[in-house]
Amino acid sequence: MGFERITVNPTVMGGVPTLRGLRIPVATVVSMVADGMTADEVVADLPDLELPDVAEALRYAAELTRERHVALRPSA
Predict the structure, then answer these.
(1) Is 52 left (phi over 0), alpha (psi -120 to 50) or beta?
(2) Fewest CB atoms less than 10 Å from the CB: which of 3, 18, 25, 72?
(3) What is the pTM for the complete model shown?
(4) Which H/E stretch holds residue 9?
């Protein structure tokens, strides 16, 4: 799976993944959606973004969870 809209540049936002080289971290977009915003609301709030940016940020986050184990509390 390739990511054409996700960029990493050590001189932009300290090298964290951003969208299209903008100073908008993928984590910010994913957090906004996780907090209940729709993709349209995210784009309205961050007008430099496009709807495909939001979709790719979510796909990127999903791929990261496949590649890395995050410690969770055991289920009851």
Answers:
(1) alpha
(2) 72
(3) 0.87
(4) none
Domains of the chain plus CATH, in order, are: 6-67 (1.10.10.10)
Termini Cα distance of the chain:
35
pLDDT tens-place string over residues 15-67: 999 999 999 999 999 999 999 999 999 999 999 999 999 999 999 999 988 87
Let me know: does 32 contact 40? Beta carbons within 8 Å: no
Q: What are phi and psi of 18, to 5 degrees?
A: -125, 175
Instruction: Give which of 57, 44, 68, 72 is closest to 18, Cα–Cα.
Output: 57
Q: What is the pLDDT of residue 69?
A: 72
- Type of residue at 60: Y
Structure tokens at 52: 């495909």
